[in-house]
């Protein structure tokens, strides 16, 4: 499905990243979907693309919407996804 998801940055969780210029890769979880692995300038089958990893920020896009995520933990630490019983 290629419809816009009406997401906010809070719906996207950074799971991990490797900053390596044009070879950068990020692992993100969008809402409750499986983790996606995105590479710079390569679109996945759902239209997600990693635009850049630089200056403590990650930019990903889908269908013209750009999302920015901090690539480093805040002073309170990274929020982690947890499984609830």
Written overview of the protein:
- The chain is mostly beta strands.
- The chain contains no helices and six strands.
- The strands form two sheets. The chain has a three-stranded antiparallel β-sheet with strand order 1-2-3, with no helix packed on it. The chain has a three-stranded antiparallel β-sheet with strand order 4-5-6, with no helix packed on it.
- It is globular and about 30 Å long.
Task: Give a summary of the structure in a few sentences.
By secondary structure, this protein is mostly beta strands. Helix content is about 0%, strand content about 40%.
Secondary-structure map with pairings?
Elements: E1 12-18, E2 25-30, E3 36-39, E4 48-54, E5 57-62, E6 65-70
Main attributes?
85 residues; mainly beta; three-stranded antiparallel beta sheet; 6 strands; 42% strand; globular
**Series of secondary-structure elements, N-terminal to C-terminal:** EEEEEE
Count of DSSP E strands?
6
Sum up the overall morphology in one term. globular
User: Can you give the helix content as a percent range?
Assistant: under 10%
For the largest sheet, list the strands in their spatial order.
1-2-3
Termini separation (Å)? 30 Å
Number of DSSP helical runs: 0
Global Rg: 13 Å
Instruction: Determine the structural class based on helices, strands and strand pairing.
Output: mainly beta
Low-confidence runs (pLDDT<50, min 5 residues)?
76-85
User: What does the average pLDDT come to?
Assistant: 78
Strand content is: 35-45%
Main β-sheet, in a few words? 3 strands, antiparallel
